[in-house]
Design goal:
Blueprint: H1 9-13, E1 21-25, H2 30-41, E2 45-50, E3 67-70, H3 76-83, E4 88-91, H4 98-103, H5 105-125, E5 130-136, H6 158-177, E6 180-186, E7 189-190, H7 203-212, E8 218-220, E9 226-227, E10 230-231, H8 232-244, E11 252-256, E12 262-263, H9 264-274, E13 283-285, H10 300-306, H11 314-329
Parallel strand pairs: 1-2, 1-4, 2-3, 4-5, 5-6, 6-11, 7-10, 8-13
Antiparallel strand pairs: 9-12
Helix pairs in contact: 2-8, 3-5, 5-6, 7-9, 7-11
Length: 330
């Protein structure tokens, strides 16, 4: 079981969350469980709703007391019960994966858009103070980098389109109902507990599994595409800063990233070297529909609104992530 980067969340966030009830949707998933773990360590009363379609009870097994409700965000009754007495909702639940969304667009629209509408409406009825949404950098599409929040969105996959629709819903709820909201656009979050066993595994997880199994990693396209890979503790930190902000955020969209980038080819050789398997050179496959060439965040708005700066850099995060995959895959 992974116990976090040894980050002292109390040192960064004090006693703000002590005794406050919060809800984490998708809290048994990769990012959600790290967020729940930090909140428990800060003394929050944490409720998690998760249908376990992408998460696992094991992710919550040693993080301390959490109220766990096994239900989908399509279950409005369960959401209403979870929201009672809640001050902040961290909405992480969604179907991820660009390639899978290309195969199953209706399912993605149903869960990601209708589910988010359900979360917002339950929060409105329960008089929650703020809903913080796990948005996605995929909405930028093929915009020139660095990506700044004022660029026109260009979603290239059904997944990206659902995330953009959700941002619009959060903004509309902030204006129409006075429910304060924020959309944090995550950039390629990675870290311990990210599932390496899915056919749609994210690239760092997929590379780790291949290399540790003695197989050559697979790259779609020429590998010169680059990403602003962001260690999961940075996403947790941004969410906590967002929850603590006293002034309204009013549905703003905010990038959450490291503000640096690395090519997929470079990533493959770095990981292979670190695992002592430089002989396992990548296999190149054709590009996939919906994939984008480069992602790279401008963090000016995150600094201005949240006081955010990354707390774990890419190399440190990658080292810890590979140590975790070694412990669970070998």
């Amino acid at each position: 079981m992974h116990r976090g980067t040894g980050i002292d969340w109390k040192e960064k966030h004090g006693d703000y969350f002590a005794g406050r009830k919060v809800l984490v949707t998708g809290g048994a998933g990769f990012i959600g469980s790290h967020l729940a773990e930090a909140l428990v360590s800060l003394g929050a009363r944490v409720c998690v709703i998760d249908d376990l379609s992408g998460g696992s009870r094991e992710n919550l097994s040693s993080i301390g007391p959490v109220e766990f409700v096994r239900a989908s965000i399509l279950d409005r009754g369960a959401l209403a019960r979870c929201m009672e007495g809640c001050e902040v909702v961290f909405h992480q639940a969604a179907l991820g994966s660009v390639p899978r969304s290309v195969e199953e667009p209706r399912l993605y629209a149903d869960v990601n858009i209708n589910g988010t509408l359900n979360v917002l409406d339950a929060a409105r009825v329960a008089r929650v103070r703020r809903v913080i949404f796990a948005a996605s950098s995929s909405v930028y599409g093929e915009n020139p980098v660095p990506w700044i929040e004022t660029l026109p969105p260009q979603p290239r996959s059904p997944y990206a389109a659902t995330k953009l629709a959700d941002e619009a819903l959060l903004s509309a709820y902030a204006v129409s109902y006075g429910l304060d909201t924020a959309s944090l656009r995550y950039f390629n979050i990675f870290g311990p507990r990210q599932n390496a066993n899915s056919a749609y595994a994210a690239v760092i997880a997929a590379f780790a599994k291949a290399l540790l199994s003695g197989r050559r990693p697979m790259i779609y396209g020429d590998g010169e595409q680059s990403r602003d890979f962001t260690f999961v503790a940075n996403a947790v930190h941004a969410n906590l800063l967002c929850a603590r902000r006293s002034q309204p955020i009013g549905g703003e969209v905010i990038n959450v990233a490291c503000g640096s980038r690395i090519s997929v080819n470079e990533l493959a050789s770095t990981m292979a070297r670190a695992l002592g398997r430089s002989d396992l050179t990548p296999v190149h496959e054709p590009e996939r529909a919906g994939d984008i060439k480069h992602s790279f965040a401008d963090l000016g708005r995150a600094r201005a609104i949240l006081g955010y700066a990354p707390i774990v850099d890419f190399n440190e995060g990658l080292e810890e992530t590979m140590a975790w995959y070694r412990s669970v895959l070998l």
